[in-house]
Amino acid sequence: MPFTAFRIHDDEPRNRIETIETGDLRAGDTLVKVTYSGLNYKDALAVTNTGKIIRDFPMVPGIDYAGTVIESEHFAPGTEVLLTGWGVGERHDGGLAGVASAKAKWLLPLPAGLSARHAMALGTAGLTAMLAVMAIEDGGVTPASGPIAVTGAGGGVGGIAIKVLAGLGYDVHAVSGRPEQAERLKALGASTVVDRSELARDAKPLEAGIWAGAVDAVGGQMLSTILATCQPGAVVTAMGNAGGIGLKTTVFPFILRGVRLQGIDSVFAPLDKRAAAWARLATAVPEASLEGSIEEIGLEGVEDACQRLVAGQVAGRILVRLA
Ligand code: NDP
Predict the structure, then answer these.
(1) Where is the Enoyl reductase (ER) domain (predicted)?
(2) What domains are there in the chain, each with its CATH number?
(3) 222 CA to centre of ligand 1 in angstroms
(4) For residue 315, what pLDDT band results from cuts at 50, 70 and 90?
(5) For a substitution probing ligand 1, which of 52, 84, 128, 199 has the most ligand atoms within 8 Å of its CB?
(6) Among 71, 93, 248, 308, which is most buried by a count of CB atoms within 10 Å?
């Protein structure tokens, strides 16, 4: 059964849209007809050859996808499923193709209330944002505790984190380098939009405490400043490096204010945690609330969209329609 795929090769042209067969894919135990795949920062690094994401070629990128089971010993044909992470689109062929071959243990049946498009409008970004919110809740931070900073607010993780946190009653301060995004971020639920330059600076080891928590998609200097400007007992979740991999801090936020720095890894998050997060996302972030943040493209638009993603020019989520 031939189908169209976007594949990355190790010779020129690196990126090709080509017709392949299931036998050309790295084998899993379940064939899925892909309906939508979401583009993430990691996909953009792979497609633009900016980061060493892919080492084995040719590879279908696409770290998340949703679709319908065609053939499996573990799922009935026709079951709607979603997949994020597990190294798919990095070490195993991903979602930017008409058909994907997955391992059944990576797939989650779509929870009630979630269509394939809705799931991919949320995608890895949505799962990561919800895991961060769950970590903030686990750390005892409530809406009464104080404001929550969301950095990289204009991006996929940031936007969904704002929507979920605001829906739970938290006071969300969106930190963005793009003033033109302010209205969209407020429409998602941010009470305040802080200019990125206010936090992308050298901070003293401790400054006045502002945040009760944070969802940091940026890392680097931004995360250093967030840690120095946290209230006692704050929970800071870190999942991204759009602003750099370095982290300059001191022990003071931790030993003088009891600040908790919680890393978020959505790629290998256990299935039970994922299922809980997706069930919450289905109701916390309705599809209609994301419409203003969704750009839908076909495979031919992937390369351009990835260039815009690495340049920080994309607002919200890019969906690639496969069927
Ligand atoms: P996006 O590209 O959609 O968003 C990233 C945002 O970060 C941009 O929109 C921009 O927001 C901000 N940003 C970009 N470049 C810089 C910079 N140089 N300095 C400061 N801010 C910058 O990515 P995602 O939202 O999909 O992902 C965000 C991060 O989280 C990425 O690093 C990604 O790799 C990581 N991630 C990690 C996961 C995990 O499991 N740990 C899972 C998913 C993502 P603005 O213009 O508003 O300032």
Answers:
(1) 15-320
(2) 3-110+286-321 (3.90.180.10), 125-263 (3.40.50.720)
(3) 12
(4) confident
(5) 128
(6) 93
Q: What is the DSSP string of 129-172?
A: HHHHHHHHHHTT--GGG--EEEESTTSHHHHHHHHHHHHTT--E
Specify the pLDDT at position 227: 98
Q: Tokens 């979920």 belong to which residue? A: 164
> Is any atom of ligand 1 closer than 6 Å to the C-beta of 156?
yes
Report d(CA 34, CA 26) in Å as an integer: 16
Taking only the tens place, the pLDDT of each residue in 240-290 is 998 999 999 999 999 999 999 999 999 999 999 999 999 999 999 999 988
Measured by CA distance, the residue closest to atom 12 of ligand 1 is: 152
Residue 155's region, left for phi above 0, alpha for psi from -120 to 50, else beta, is beta
Ligand 1 contact, 40 CB (< 6 A): yes
The residue type at 223: L
The answer to whether the CB of 150 falls within 8 A of the CB of 214 is yes
* DSSP element (H, E) containing 297: strand 294-297
> Is residue 128 within 6 Å of ligand 1 at its C-beta?
yes
Mind spelling out the 3-state secondary structure of 207-248? CCCCEEEEEECCCHHHHHHHHHCEEEEEEEEECCCCCCCCCC
Q: What is the pLDDT of residues 155-189, one digit of tens each?
A: 999 999 999 999 999 999 999 999 999 999 999 99
User: Helix or strand or coil: residue 163?
Assistant: helix
**Closest residue by CA, ligand 1 atom 15:** 242
Q: Ligand 1, from 218, 224, 314, 318: best to mutate by most atoms within 8 Å of Cβ?
A: 218
What value of ipTM does the predicted structure carry? 0.99
